[in-house]
Design brief:
Elements (H helix, E strand, L loop, with lengths): L1 H10 L16 E4 L9 E6 L9 H15 L4 E6 L4 H13 L4 E4 L5 H10 L4 E5 L9 E6 L2 H14 L4 E6 L4 H17 L4 E6 L6 H13 L4 E3 L5 H9 L7 E4 L13 E7 L1 H13 L6 E5 L6 E5 L6 H16 L15
């Protein structure tokens, strides 16, 4: 998986992304290097879950570590875990007081905090996502166009299902999760228009128990291929993995799910390439750009990575996925994901 990330990163170092302004940290330091050449930017990450959550938070953490390897001496990095928005303000202000160049609050739930602090600390750059908004001059937002990855998952689901029923277990109907789920619907309908699609939301990004319960209900209703995004997806995957003797499988939205014991049920996975994001971010900082942009992530700019479980990969399905992926790499913004109406499924 790391080889895939490094390859995608090396192909997309020119990708333009967020930026920063100021010095040191109260959280855990994940590696830090000094050098006499180009400036080493001090980057802080604030997350609501953990750096090993096999999902959203780990993807950003791993991406920053990968960027450190690709750009030695350019990124000094610390992080703070389990930071609910109500608690994150004091930690963010500690980072700001210690002069960090960039403070990433990884989640749309931090929007109000970021906007408040951006005004309070105009010389520091902040970033949060997912959001398609254009923020102040010292705030970057980032939005994975995950309808693309969802579409590929939908192709797999539509071509692989034997029951004709697909389950989607989502966190909330918003942000990149909404784009992913609607992309799945579009992908399924493109290859299997008669398939039945079940959509349910836990209402949380990290409610593993409810995700598992919803997956069980969908399997009882006949779903034999399931998918979903964010940290809560691991709960649904665990429910799928309990069906050891049944041809019921998962399509993942995070590559880490391929590596866990339950990964034997994962057909394939897309991942967000935050390594490329961070490399582009350093380029923005070098150019003096401090914010005021929304950064898209897509196959066209190297923002996504794709991987198969070789034990479950089928040549005909892979060919269809490769065909669609090639179109996404050639041109972004090709899917009308917002047109999907769940009430008409």
């Amino acid at each position: 998986m790391k080889k895939l990330i490094s390859l995608a990163l090396s192909l997309s170092l020119a990708t333009a992304l967020f930026a920063g302004g100021a010095s040191e940290a109260p959280g855990k330091t994940a590696a830090s290097s000094q050098q006499s050449g180009p400036k080493a930017y001090k980057v802080a990450l604030i997350i609501e879950n953990t750096i090993d959550d096999k999902g959203w938070c780990q993807a950003m953490h791993d991406g920053i570590l990968e960027a450190q390897k690709e750009l030695p001496g350019r990124i000094e990095y610390s992080y703070s875990e389990k930071m609910a928005p109500v608690d994150a303000g004091s930690v963010a202000r500690q980072y700001a007081a210690k002069g960090y160049d960039l403070i990433i609050c990884h989640g749309a739930q931090y929007k109000n905090l970021v906007m408040e602090m951006a005004d309070e600390y105009p010389n520091i750059t902040f970033a949060f996502g997912t959001s398609a908004e254009i923020g102040p001059k010292n705030v970057f937002t980032y939005m994975p166009q995950s309808e693309e990855t969802g579409y590929l998952s939908g192709i797999i689901a539509g071509l692989t299902t034997k029951t004709g029923t697909i389950g989607i277990v989502g966190p909330v109907d918003g942000g990149d999760a909404a784009r992913y789920n609607r992309g799945v619907v579009l992908g399924v309908k493109a290859v299997n228009p008669k398939a039945k699609i079940l959509v349910a939301h836990t209402g949380s990004f990290s409610d593993f128990v409810k995700a598992g319960d919803l997956a069980k209900v969908q399997m009882q209703q006949g779903a034999d291929i399931l998918t979903g995004s964010s940290q809560q997806a691991i709960g649904a995957l665990r429910a799928v993995a309990e069906e050891k003797d049944k041809d019921i499988y998962w399509v993942a939205q995070d590559g880490a799910l391929l590596t866990i014991p339950e990964g034997y049920k994962v057909i394939a996975s897309s991942s967000y390439n935050y390594g490329a994001v961070m490399a582009g971010l350093v380029g923005k900082l070098d150019a003096g750009v401090k914010g005021g942009e929304c950064i898209p992530m897509n196959f066209n700019n190297g923002g996504f990575i794709w991987a198969w479980n070789d034990n479950l990969k089928k040549a005909d399905v892979a060919a269809k996925v490769d065909e669609a992926m090639a179109k996404f790499k050639a041109k972004a913004d090709t899917l009308d994901w917002a047109s999907v109406d769940y009430s008409k499924l």
